[in-house]
Amino acid sequence: MPTLKRTASTSLDGPDTKKPVKNGTGTAAPATGIAEDTPYQQLLMALESHKAGSRPIDQLGDKKAVVVYWMRMRDLRLSDNRALASASDTARSLNAHLVVLHIFSPGDYRAHDRSARRIDFVLRNLVDLRQRLSTLHVPLYTLTIEKRKTIPERVVELLTSWDSTHIFGNIEHEIDELRRDIHLIELCEKHMIQVDLLHDTCVVEPGRVLTKENKPYSIFSPWQKNWANIINQDLSSHIDAAPDCKPNDPSATDDSRLANLFEVEIPASIPGFELAEEDRKNMESYWKAGEAAAQEMLEHFMTSPLDSKEPKQATLQMGSTKLSNNGKADTPTIVDQYSTLRNRPDLPGTSCLSAYLAAGVISPRACLRASLEVKEKGKKSKKLQVDRRELGVGMWQSELGWREFYQHVLAAWPRVSMGKSFNEKYEKMVWEWDETKFEAWKAGQTGYPFIDACMRQLKEMGYMHNRGRMCVAMFLTKDLMMDWRTGEQWFMVNLVDGDLGSNNGGWQWSASTGVDAQPYFRIFAPLAQSEKSDPNGDFIRQYVPELKSLSGKAIHDPYHVLPPDKFKKLGYPKPIVDHAVVRKRALARYKNPGCTSDE
Fold first, then answer.
1. Do 528 and 520 touch, CB atoms closer than 8 A?
2. Distance (Å, rounded) from C-alpha 44 to C-alpha 30?
3. Residue 399 is labelled as binding a ligand
4. Predicted model pTM
5. Are residues 109 and 156 in the same domain?
6. Is Nucleus found in the keyword set (predicted)?
7. How many other C-beta atoms are found inside a 10 Å radius of the C-beta of residue 142?
8. Is 256 annotated as a binding residue?
9. Which CATH number do you get for residue 583?
10. Of 384, 412, 440, which marks where a domain is finished?
11. Do 585 and 469 lie in a common domain?
């Protein structure tokens, strides 16, 4: 079995921040329902303590100051960005200049299995952001820091060289990032620099959606009900957009400390994470950069009808195809049909916003605001309707909830960031390792057409339909009986929308090792999933051209349906396992973790 890199490590040490602090009005107050020994809680306590000891703004000196917003990999937008809005407002109140900082960290990319596709998407969005910020006289300064442990020190060096009084950022929930920010606070305190880190990734921050026992939820349904109730009780404060970034005074371009920052170009690639030319062109075609592209896709999903005559194309058109409803107000839109379409990869029935949400090119608040514009019988809803899953918009809101739920899990149970099963009894699981079969799975050569189509979609697009993700993950963990971590890592190094919370949560759900996971005895049958998810075989024909001449039962199960001579001519592999046989092995292994019995 291959040696697996952990998706997150514990190598960055932060200060001891377990001392109790008074509850106050800090940027991010401690979350009462999360244990004090979690890095997330430690960061909140450090922020609270730092806020209590910070100097009032009017005591920061007369020198024209600089306020810095540290843009990370998951908040690449100017609109509805809480940390950027706060940094901009603070700069305006201090008559200071605003600087936007982004750090390229190859060490973090390697440690966290960041894909070259994900990094390419970040770079292309930064190019768009730099151009837009320049019209506001705001520099976007980027630099590469090879040694990730030194990032806090290097950031403080920059802040002091710019005479910065404040640094703002949005909170990230992964272990390394949390500990990095704790260390940043400690260093900034020594240099009299104020740190403000805000909740932006989630509509409701981790630690607020709690059980009656004041504990975090590990089951999605009650979590979702509570989450939606919290939002609905104060809709405005949760989903209203943050103010826009305000322009700097034009004199910022002449400031000797900042002038050179405007000259720094966004690199075309990061060494060690370059894309092959064909892949680069594919990513540019499939995943256009910029907030405008994300907004266009959202509007397409919300307002355009489904053209059911066309199978889902490889590019999904990414919102660029304008489907008109011909003025018919009663024509169902894509979101209207989401409840029935979301499990059909052969049809363009999803928003395809995952890459934009993962990179923060669009905010989850913007998605919820748009969902509340959807009318039912001519009327808009004034609240989330996650309990009405028969409604397309209610189901979509629920799916946005899953994304947020997994962020809450990261914060509450950091072990899932470290390659650990949430359900610890499955750490004893005896996994198989067969490199030939694993390579067949990766290449989409398993002999199961739907599984292979999904894996080839990943290879081509850096994306896979959510139904496909569940099916291929269950095939790897239940049919091939291989460690879910091998699949989790393969996804991360190939996905353009790779996100630790969602990817880990999805893999552990399919492997039956995670929070609110699929029961181990419910094992997807590849053939049944194929016939249900791609009934006409259009999705298979798209990605498995060897089978494009087939139809009916044959396209779903060519090895068993076709005569041997006809199957051989296809040039397609026979199934690498017999599902009925390996299903029994999986049931035996999961029933008694640690056993090696196959019966």
1. no
2. 5
3. yes
4. 0.91
5. yes
6. no
7. 19
8. no
9. 1.10.579.10
10. 412
11. yes
